[in-house]
Specification:
- By secondary structure, this protein is mainly α.
- It has one domain (about 5-245).
- Helices cover about 75% and strands about 0% of the residues.
- It is built from nine helices and no strands.
- It has helices spanning about 5-60, 65-75, 90-100, 110-155, 160-170, 180-190, 200-205, 215-230, 230-245.
- It is elongated.
- Keywords: Coiled coil.
Length: about 250
């Protein structure tokens, strides 16, 4: 067998091996990114749970001065977490409180309202902790995947690989000029790029941490009682919504 034929056969074998390794790793990475994006999508439920409790607390406080007092006390910005116009919908208000299912026990409407307010704040604090932990975990997973993807590109430097093989087959190349060849390689490399989403912490809000409810229980009780006394009719409506079933 002529040397040229041997060289061509060896080149073809090397090409096949590189292509097989490249696409095996590429498919594995793409699947990892797809699975990661599903995790991020599922994480949106955590933010939803946080926002729903924010909305409930805002409805219970109702007045701007009480909301400001709450923000000062808890160091958590309620106003940055919801759209006021949304809460004007009676249907949304109904669904927000009916989702809670049960009302805390209390001998009076005021005590039930106060206990509900405390429970919602405790839930907000707990949900926040889970939210931030999960967000940090997702960011770490994101960085790991990004590093693995960058390492993959270093292992398989496509422009260099393509140029190497083009030099081996320079005499038989159908691409007329180096410029045309370069353009074709650029388009090929671009089409084979792995799609990388933005980091979860860029997509989701990093809310300030609310204070531990154990540190401010008495102040929260005072605030809830003040809210009840200032708008008893709407406070009792909230209590009735929690007890009501669809």
């Amino acid at each position: 067998m002529p040397w040229e034929d041997i060289a061509e056969a060896l080149t073809g074998e090397v090409k096949r091996e590189i292509a097989e390794n490249y696409f095996t790793e590429k498919l594995a990475l793409e699947k990892a990114w797809t699975d990661f994006e599903e995790e991020v999508k599922a994480f949106s439920k955590k933010e939803e749970a946080l926002i729903l409790n924010v909305c409930r607390l805002v409805i219970m406080l109702e007045k701007d001065e009480l909301i400001q007092e709450f923000e000062k006390l808890t160091q958590f910005p309620l106003k940055s977490c919801y759209y006021p116009e949304v809460l004007k919908s009676s249907n949304i208000r109904r669904r927000l409180f009916q989702r809670l299912g049960t009302l805390p026990f209390g001998l009076t409407s005021k005590s039930r309202f106060t206990k509900l307010f405390l429970k919602l704040y405790e839930d907000l604090f707990k949900t926040y902790k889970e939210y931030i932990k999960n967000l940090k975990d997702l960011d770490e997973e994101y960085l790991t995947l990004k590093e693995e993807t960058q390492a993959f590109y270093k292992r398989f430097d496509l422009p260099s690989i393509l140029n190497f093989f083009s030099r081996l087959t320079e005499g038989t190349s159908e691409i007329a000029t180096p410029q045309e060849r370069e353009k074709t390689y650029e388009e090929l490399v671009k089409s084979l790029k792995i799609s990388i989403p933005e980091a979860p912490s860029k997509k989701y809000e990093l809310y300030p941490e609310p204070r531990n409810p154990g540190e401010i229980t008495s102040d929260l009780i005072k605030l809830a009682k003040k809210a009840f006394e200032l708008h008893q009719a709407s406070a009792k409506e909230v209590l009735s919504l929690v007890s009501k079933k669809d």
